[in-house]
Model the fold of this input.
Amino acid sequence: MRLEPLAPEHLPGMAAITADAAAVRFTRIPEPLPDGFPADWLARYRRGREDGTAYGWAAVEDDGTFLGVALAPRVDRDAQEVELGYIVAREARGRGVATEVVRRLTRWAFDEAGALRVYLLIDVANAASERVAERAGYTREGVMRSVWLKPGRRIDQAVWSRLPSDP
Done:
């Protein structure tokens, strides 16, 4: 597996993710999905890369098969904090892709973005994602109750973090 900056060739995979009810349920993908969202999503991460505030990569197999997205939706260089996230394509789930993506993103955040704190925000109903955080060496800090996720939907959201000094 490799991570490559999100680009137009990844739009079909990104569009498939936005059509996956399980992916939409646990992420900030809007409901209902606005027309042109995958292209707008790509543009957001391309702008973020330019100004250093957000980064997005496609996780792909060596043969180019799209596995999902690896995201740094919030990069706060002043606070030296980075929020990470990921969405694995339905056909790639259960193969360790998510854990590997989080490990690579975490290394990038510490080594390239200069983060002193990296965190994940996970819906407590998403047990699989919490297991990924744990396997990637994150510590569960606590739960923010009744956090707004999208119109008409509030969730309890766990905060998981890593510091450069963590094993």
Observations:
- The domain at 2-162 is CATH 3.40.630.30 (Aminopeptidase).
- Strands lie at 2-5, 55-60, 66-76, 81-88, 117-123, 139-150, 153-162.
- The two ends are 24 Å apart (CA to CA).
